[in-house]
């Protein structure tokens, strides 16, 4: 694969130097299991590659033999390559121009960890951010993105550099929508659009206008339905981006494949030692959930402070025991068995100051894990915060712990 990539970089480099048109998808085709359903505009790719080159290399006169160092060319062409075949090492030859999640019914191997560089993020909208619907369960269905208020005709921008994978229409869903794949490994989805400003397979830059906002598909009131996906799986965009400030929470967002009883769950968490959470779906029982994750009903009851006969509600988070990820050092794994020092520190503060202690909810946390962390019980937290045991807690939500 590495050799193949290098050969491809060299081929592109040579074709650019010699001014030959690049048959990008043609090169790629040798490696495709299925040919792409839509022909690629090679001339357009070539133009973009040239523009990119202009962006990366100061004009240098080429006299006789090649006057530019091989190093310059390789840098340029690695950048170009990354846009032509975004996150190729992750998605390999998959370039599906129809299905938003092409891996829905496919068994794929998710990496143990994957760092995503978010530095070049651009807010997809220009107006002041108003989130009209958050990611997560609402009523009985899953909302797989973040809804941002826009007016019909407002400019929608690419969140990162990338390439347009899907430009399509779903009447009973996304309406007119775009899917972009980015070199950092993420894919972003833009739904309910009124007009496209890009075409399929087009390379776009971060912040470039790609469409106009609208109200098409299953939508009441104009808005942008914005999704972030990783190998087809949706991720709460608010975990990655601070929309109000138009910046990513962190320059690099690292996903860890959570392990339960030593097995990869393909559940991604931003924290290596976060506990995995399963959201109860219609018809599921504790027995079924236990079997799904290779654990026992007793274990689940213990972890969640529930009994075997507890009634599960749809969307209810069920905490699962996890092992440390493979990237953790053995000493860290050993440390896990010793009691967490944090509760002791907290209780000391409690005793000396008597002030209430608040906790801001992090991704993957539940009332149970918060209670454990602060050496208290779920019942006590519910009492202190006047909430019910089975409420869905949100990231960033402040919980009084003492
Ligand atoms: Zn939405």
Describe this structure in words.
The protein is of the alpha+beta class and 402 residues long. Among the domains are: 113-257, Distorted Sandwich (Glucose Permease (Domain IIA)), CATH 2.70.70; 275-338, Membrane-bound Lytic Murein Transglycosylase D, Chain A; 340-402, Membrane-bound Lytic Murein Transglycosylase D, Chain A. Helices cover 27% and strands 24% of the residues. It has twelve helices and 22 strands. It has helices at residues 2-17, 24-29, 42-56, 70-84, 88-91, 237-240, 286-292, 297-304, 330-337, 342-353, 367-373, 378-385; strands at residues 113-117, 131-133, 136-138, 141-143, 146-149, 155-157, 162-170, 175-181, 186-193, 195-196, 203-204, 209-212, 223-230, 233-235, 241-242, 247-248, 252-260, 263-269, 276-279, 317-320, 358-360, 398-400. The strands form seven sheets. Strands 2, 5, 7, 8, 9, 11, 13 and 14 form an eight-stranded antiparallel β-sheet that branches. Strands 1-17-18 form a three-stranded antiparallel β-sheet, with no helix packed on it. Strand 13 and strand 14 form a beta hairpin. Helix 1 crosses helix 4 (70-84). It is globular. The termini are far apart. Residues 1-5, 13-40, 56-61 and 322-354 have low confidence and may be disordered. Bound molecules: zinc ion (ZN).
